[in-house]
Amino acid sequence: MRSLRVRTQRRTELVEITESVAQALSGTDTGEGACFVYCPHTTAGLLINERADPAVAHDIRGALDRLVPQDGPWTHAEGNSPAHVKASLVGSSVLVPLVDGALQLGTWQGIFLAEFDGPRERVIQLRILS
Amino acid sequence: MRSLRVRTQRRTELVEITESVAQALSGTDTGEGACFVYCPHTTAGLLINERADPAVAHDIRGALDRLVPQDGPWTHAEGNSPAHVKASLVGSSVLVPLVDGALQLGTWQGIFLAEFDGPRERVIQLRILS
Amino acid sequence: MRSLRVRTQRRTELVEITESVAQALSGTDTGEGACFVYCPHTTAGLLINERADPAVAHDIRGALDRLVPQDGPWTHAEGNSPAHVKASLVGSSVLVPLVDGALQLGTWQGIFLAEFDGPRERVIQLRILS
Fold first, then answer.
1. Is pLDDT of A30 > 80?
2. How far apart are CA B72 and CA B68, in angstroms?
3. How far does A32 lie from chain C, in Å, by closest CA?
4. If one looks up domain B2-129 in CATH, what number appears?
5. Half-sphere exposure of C28 toward its Cβ, with a 13 Å CA cutoff?
6. Which residue of A32, A35, A46, A56 is the best one to mutate when testing the C interface, meaning the one whose CB has the most C CBs within 10 A?
7. Model-level ipTM above the cut of 0.90
8. Higher-pLDDT residue of B123, A32
9. For residue A43, which of A92, A117, C1, C105 is within the disulfide window of CB 3.0 to 4.6 Å?
10. How far is the C-alpha of A120 from the C-alpha of C4, rounded, in Å?
């Protein structure tokens, strides 16, 4: 198991981590398998989407903020229930095909940490499944 | 493959199954791997989020009920289309890092069966990937 | 790794691919494992839900279209930001339990390619994890 530290800068933000994941895998020789990327947090998640135009990540973040507005009703007293809901919607892990330690993402795809209650330092865990 | 039976009590409800999953895995000696938790139902799903304060699960359930209201328009005649939509949003499986049969969840994380068309008895399947 | 080509017919559409996935796996002898189905696109995703009544897939598609309406505000200039958001919500992969090359889906479950920016030809990748 390897891990990455990611510093987020805003309350809600998609931070691309594709290169960091790729570097953490370099030197592994896995044959065919999958990279299991795991987020151990409950107010952030992981997703795969377009990396070519940063406006896409911006729009995904904005749409999630509109889908789960800050005003509830909420019962959890910390005021970050929308972050928990958004993390549940995008999910806590992604799986990416892997060949000999190289991520086999689609042409336009990147891996994003979806921060919903930042800014914070987040830890992301990587594991190879075969 | 191992399986769990989970009795849900309400129409929509998040039921924490972390301890049941952990017990079902005890005694397995897997080295490093992942626990693949699978929901074979179409009106329930699985998600990972905060287990410390039960108000979080309550808020997630409530937000999903507001996101997908009971009134459609719907074409499926059984009246449970919102349950199918919510199950599609949260997903039918979760993956959790595993070391020697012990779940490696984050500090605040638990595994939840997300019931959207209860009350029912549900079956959840577990498998170890390495 | 095996792959499927799927021709979609509409802008947004759920296309069932269960039989194509099952055929691509036939002849593999895997013991117990999981089938990792991966979508390398950023405006389409994958989900598991009911295959028995096609009205369910129709209702899921409709609900996603209402959740993420075409009018934004959006900053991505291609006009397909809603498709990227919907793909992020449903996710880029599904995992299905596998025994000796046979998918172990629940009674009512099927695997669907969720097209959000069609019509197009899509490629879906399959890999066996054990």
1. no
2. 8
3. 8
4. 2.60.120.460
5. 24
6. A56
7. yes
8. B123
9. A117
10. 40
